[in-house]
Specification:
Elements (H helix, E strand, L loop, with lengths): L8 E3 L21 E4 L8 E4 L24 H5 L8 H12 L5 H8 L1 E4 L3 H7 L5 E4 L16 E4 L1 H5 L3 H16 L12 H9 L2 H11 L15 H21 L2
Parallel strand pairs: 1-5, 4-6
Antiparallel strand pairs: 2-3, 5-6
Length: 251
C-alpha cells in the first residue's frame, strides 16, 4: 500500500526541554523502528530493529507562516538549503491552511516554515529528506542554536513526491508533540508525550498515527488499513485533555 522507503524524516527533541526524552531520541531514516501491525479488532505492536545512528547529542528534528514575518525575506533566503520560490511557497502555505487545528494554529503562530533542504539532514543522509521538524536550529555539523530554531522544512523533493499533505501532517504532529504534549501532564505527573510514546512505540510512530487520525494514508513508520476506534478515541481524549490543561496552565 505504501512505499515505505521513500520518505526520510528525523526529529530533534531538545534534551534540555524534557528529561523523559533527553538525548535518546534518534534521527531516523532506516533506524530503530516500531511497527504497528494492520488492525482487525485490536492493534498488535511488534518491534523491528534496523541500523541505528549513534545517540550522541542528537535531538528530534516544514512554508510561510505568520512567524516568518519577523524575518526579512532576504534573510531567510540566506538560510543554508533554502529552496523557496513563489510556486513552492504557495503550495506549502495552502497545505498549512488546510491543516486541522490545533496543528494549523501552532504552525501559523509558532513555527517558521521553509521550502528547503535541511542542512543537517543532507549532511547525514547525503540527499534532501522530504520533511524535517527542527526545534533546535541545527546546522550541517549538528550544532544547534541557529536562527531557524522551531522550524519545519519541506524540500522540493517532498513537494514533487505528491504527498505534501501527509508529509506536512507528519511534521506538524512532531511540532504538536514537542510543543504541546510534553508539557501536558497527567494527574500522576507523567507527560502525555511520554504516554503516547509508550502506547504507539515512539515519536515517529506517534506522528504517523496522527496522519491516520486526520485521514491521511501515506506514512513511513507504521502501516495501517485504518486507525482503530480504540486508538482514535485515545487520541481524541488526549487532545481534549491537553487543550484544557494548557489553557488552564496559561491563565
Amino acid at each position: 500500500m505504501i512505499k515505505r522507503f521513500l520518505i526520510f524524516l528525523f526529529i530533534f527533541l531538545a534534551c534540555t526541554e524534557n528529561t523523559e526524552t533527553s538525548i535518546d531520541e534518534v534521527i531516523n531514516e532506516s533506524t530503530t523502528t516500531s511497527t504497528i501491525a494492520k488492525a482487525t479488532t485490536t492493534t498488535t505492536t511488534t518491534t523491528t530493529t534496523r541500523t541505528t545512528i549513534p545517540r550522541n547529542n542528537l535531538i528530534t528534528m516544514h512554508d510561510p507562516s505568520e512567524r516568518t514575518e519577523i524575518f526579512n525575506s532576504k534573510y531567510i533566503d540566506l538560510f543554508p538549503g533554502y529552496e523557496g520560490d513563489s510556486k513552492e511557497d504557495l503550495l506549502i502555505q495552502l497545505a498549512v491552511n488546510q491543516l486541522p487545528d490545533p496543528f494549523r494554529t501552532i504552525l501559523k503562530e509558532e513555527i517558521i516554515i521553509l521550502n528547503g533542504c535541511h542542512p543537517y539532514g543532507k549532511a547525514i543522509f547525503g540527499r534532501c529528506v522530504y520533511g524535517v521538524f527542527d526545534p533546535g536550529g541545527y546546522d550541517e555539523k549538528g550544532n544547534p542554536g541557529n536562527e531557524w530554531a522551531r522550524s519545519i522544512w519541506i524540500s522540493d523533493r517532498g513537494i514533487e513526491s505528491g504527498h505534501l499533505k501527509d508529509i506536512l501532517l507528519h511534521e506538524a504532529a512532531h511540532a504538536y508533540s514537542f510543543m504541546e504534549l510534553q508539557d501536558c501532564k497527567q494527574p500522576g505527573g507523567e507527560s502525555y508525550r511520554s504516554l503516547a510514546h509508550k502506547k504507539f512505540g515512539g515519536e515517529e510512530n506517534l506522528a504517523d498515527i496522527f496522519v491516520y487520525f486526520y485521514g491521511g494514508k501515506w506514512t513511513h513508520y507504521i502501516d495501517l488499513d485504518y486507525l482503530s476506534i480504540e486508538n482514535r478515541g485515545w487520541i481524541s481524549e488526549m487532545m481534549a485533555y491537553c487543550d484544557f490543561y494548557n489553557k488552564e496552565k496559561n491563565t
